[in-house]
Amino acid sequence: MTLAQAPGSGLQWTELSIFIVLFLLVSVMGFVASRWRAAASLDHLDEWGLGGRKFGSWITWFLVGGDLYTAYTFVAVPALVFGAGALGFYALPYTVILYPIVFLPALRMWSVSRSRGYVTPADFVRGRYGSPTLALLIAITGIVATMPYIALQLVGLEAVLRTMGLNGGGIAGHLPLLIAFLVLALYTYQSGLRAPALIAFVKDGLIYIVILVAVFYLPSKLGGWSHIFDTSAQALSQPNPNTGKPKGSIVLTGTNQLQYITLALGSALALFLYPHSLTGVLASRGRNVIKRNMIALPAYSLLLGLLALLGYVALTAGVKPITNAATGNADSNTVVPVLFDTQFPSWFAGIAFAAIGIGALVPAAIMSIAAANLWTRNIYKEYLKRDASPAQEAKQAKIASLVVKFGAVAFILFIDPQFSIDLQLIGGVLILQTLPAVAIALYTRWFHRIGLIAGWAVGMVWGIIMLYNIPNPNTKRAHFGGSALPLDKLSIFGWHPFSGSAIQIYPGFVALIANLVVAVIVTIIARSLKVFNGTDDTEGTDYHADEHDKDLRPIGAAH
């Protein structure tokens, strides 16, 4: 049994060959998917963008799981544990508390969307409040927050390609990535949501095999978990040359416990507000499918916990991140690929790299479709062509999905990938500000639409200001340096209520609180002045509709 060559020693032909074969396999599946459970025509957003709204429990489980647990999750979470220690495990409690939080709202969103023909969360907001302006803000927020998320799938894919020796500089260095995304763009254009739904079966099967082998094989090879934790604790306790402080810790410290809690809760509240997350829900056949999935999806949390532990395994194995030839900086996203490359036989490392690479394509396809649906329904049809036919909507969405994908590629080509990571951080803070208009509105229409717009604006502006004021001494960045805001820097119109405190907090959570406070105050004022609050197109029974109800809106009906 031969191990893979050391990273940087040239092309890893065995790994690359296996990667290419599996990539071609899923590409063929992507094109064939247009005929899988297809209607007479895909020229309707119900069909192209939501897979006919008829996915059952298994398909939905793989689709939503493939959508939420992305290549960046598999690459970045262990990389964060590798660099900072226990803080990286925030992703575990947030995925545990996520499903109980979204269980009921997801059911109500599916029902009202199925009843009224809504394809996007902004469609729901438009119908609930009769406000094209509020719907436009929700749509723009969703698109802006999704773009860097797609770019981050490329970061994960490039980390794998770099580890296999494809680490050139300039445009030529990105050529394999461009080819991969061109293929992705073509089969998504043809097959719509059916393509990632079908490919998700292969992606998740490969991921489970690789991770289960890794968490049993690697510890036995490196001296067991006790040795791994001891070695990791010692490595993280070493001083960072840029700050003089320890690099991290395998337990939370007094300063980052609040950050851990608010980041986990804020992330849980935000995840199903992302348009691509709701796309998987709306593609389900009925409420029972969603119920089963909310019960079964926490199985992915177990997988995520095992993945995170690979950060400690990499510390024990002495992994060194590969230097990005394009930027000259060490690419921390290569930690897990390098671990697999140096510790597994070449053939198995190739399978692992294919799993991560395919794991980038599935969510990237779903995200681009979700962003395209937002553009088509809530900008193109609302403001540019009100009389657009279903076929024209589908055509516009297909074109928009191409634009979104190659816009994400532009992030990687022309911007340092570290900056796109910062943009994803901003995206999380931004999408959280849609919670009052989208999630709370599923239960009550008490908020005034003017209050929701005012709250959204305050949350957006303050959230970005807080992120801007976070430095990163490790990378010597003065702004947008992370997601940990020291309470000492929390300023309310120049007033520092926690001056001198080193305790950290997640700025998205703070911005959401400000959003809600402003929305409540403006709503009270607007209601006292009896300002018109728009017309609600929905009815109480819409929020409880199910797949077999009489007079349910036909799939593929004109909107």
UniProtKB/TrEMBL annotation:
<dbReference type="InterPro" id="IPR038377">
    <property type="entry name" value="Na/Glc_symporter_sf"/>
</dbReference>
<feature type="transmembrane region" description="Helical">
    <location>
        <begin position="87"/>
        <end position="107"/>
    </location>
</feature>
<feature type="transmembrane region" description="Helical">
    <location>
        <begin position="260"/>
        <end position="283"/>
    </location>
</feature>
<feature type="transmembrane region" description="Helical">
    <location>
        <begin position="55"/>
        <end position="81"/>
    </location>
</feature>
<feature type="transmembrane region" description="Helical">
    <location>
        <begin position="196"/>
        <end position="218"/>
    </location>
</feature>
<keyword id="KW-1133">Transmembrane helix</keyword>
<protein>
    <submittedName>
        <fullName>Solute:Na+ symporter, SSS family protein</fullName>
    </submittedName>
</protein>
<dbReference type="InterPro" id="IPR050277">
    <property type="entry name" value="Sodium:Solute_Symporter"/>
</dbReference>
<feature type="transmembrane region" description="Helical">
    <location>
        <begin position="347"/>
        <end position="376"/>
    </location>
</feature>
<comment type="similarity">
    <text>Belongs to the sodium:solute symporter (SSF) (TC 2.A.21) family.</text>
</comment>
<feature type="transmembrane region" description="Helical">
    <location>
        <begin position="421"/>
        <end position="443"/>
    </location>
</feature>
<keyword id="KW-0472">Membrane</keyword>
<keyword id="KW-0812">Transmembrane</keyword>
<feature type="transmembrane region" description="Helical">
    <location>
        <begin position="450"/>
        <end position="470"/>
    </location>
</feature>
<feature type="transmembrane region" description="Helical">
    <location>
        <begin position="505"/>
        <end position="526"/>
    </location>
</feature>
<feature type="transmembrane region" description="Helical">
    <location>
        <begin position="171"/>
        <end position="189"/>
    </location>
</feature>
<keyword id="KW-0813">Transport</keyword>
<feature type="transmembrane region" description="Helical">
    <location>
        <begin position="397"/>
        <end position="415"/>
    </location>
</feature>
<dbReference type="InterPro" id="IPR001734">
    <property type="entry name" value="Na/solute_symporter"/>
</dbReference>
<feature type="transmembrane region" description="Helical">
    <location>
        <begin position="295"/>
        <end position="315"/>
    </location>
</feature>
<feature type="transmembrane region" description="Helical">
    <location>
        <begin position="16"/>
        <end position="34"/>
    </location>
</feature>
<feature type="transmembrane region" description="Helical">
    <location>
        <begin position="134"/>
        <end position="151"/>
    </location>
</feature>
<dbReference type="Pfam" id="PF00474">
    <property type="entry name" value="SSF"/>
</dbReference>
